Amino acid sequence: MTAGSQVQDDRTGSIYVAPSLSAALDALADYGPAGAPFAGGTWIMRSPIRHEPLRPHYVAIGKIPELSAIRIGKDAIEIGAAVTHAALAAALAGLPEFAVLAAAAGSSANPAVRALATIGGNLSALDFYAADCMPALLCLDAAVEIASRDASERMSLADFLKRRSTFQPGRLLTRIIVPRTERKTAHARLPLRKSGDYPVAIVSLSVNVDTASHVQAVRIAIGSVEQTPRRWGRLEAALLGAVLDPARVADIAAELAAEFTGRDSVEVPAWYRVSVLPSLVRRAAATALAN
Predict the structure, then answer these.
(1) pLDDT for 116-150, tens place per residue?
(2) Which residue, 42, 81, 161, 221, has most beta carbons within 10 Å?
(3) Per-residue pLDDT reduced to its tens digit, 194-221
(4) Any idea where the FAD-binding PCMH-type domain is (predicted)?
(5) Within this chain, do residues 174 and 192 fall inside the same structural domain, yes or no?
(6) Closest listed residue to residue 179, CA positions, set 78, 90, 105
(7) The pTM is what?
């Protein structure tokens, strides 16, 4: 394991501050199941509240330059896994095609959490069902890069979400790659309280329309309703070729909403998460048209 600072903590055992990506991957490989990456820590530090044991060892990755960088290229943007929600929202503020992701990152949780929580943590927390950035990235056709000491692999975000619970110890999400293209986007969420909170439901929309507002291509992703965010394929198919009219979109969404099985929680019953989808879809369509 490459030299780096090591901090002993009575609660977690040890925290190794990795000086480089290769050092972090070496440490994660050496620790195996006893270790885990630590970035913003907003999810890990609440593990005791969820009655989850902390790992004996953590590898701090927040000071690794390539993991904290955002690269805006001609054909794609690349987002390091340790980029915070606040930094991501600020970096994308002037790019209308990424309005959905800027809104997702800029409206999640509250300002204190956004200053610490990272995009990689948002995607990697297995039991966090209300992540704002997941549906936003799904509707943008994002891919992710997963690295280990010996190799790296790129896959679609949809594949990552299916496979993330099966990854062996030592693997780390290092960056998110989002293609650039002309599109209108929007992010609509219903929080539990106006003051900022986890959302009841999320609708993220990316759409291409012609001069008469006919839908040429569309991607709609739903989050927080079920345990894993997913595309709404039947609604997408129903909108292709038609005028993007928010009221009509909401009517179609109401007809198709029964395909979702909402998740129960102490805050919100399952049926309510599904019932608000048509209004959120309407709001997202109206916002996209206005952009």
Answers:
(1) 999 999 999 988 999 999 999 999 999 999 999 99
(2) 81
(3) 545 789 999 999 999 999 999 999 999 9
(4) 8-183
(5) no
(6) 78
(7) 0.92
Determine the Cα–Cα distance for residues 176 and 196; give it in Å rounded to an integer. Answer: 26
Range of the domain at 224: 185-290
Identity of the amino acid at 85: H
Name the nearest CA neighbour of 218 among 155, 281, 129. 281
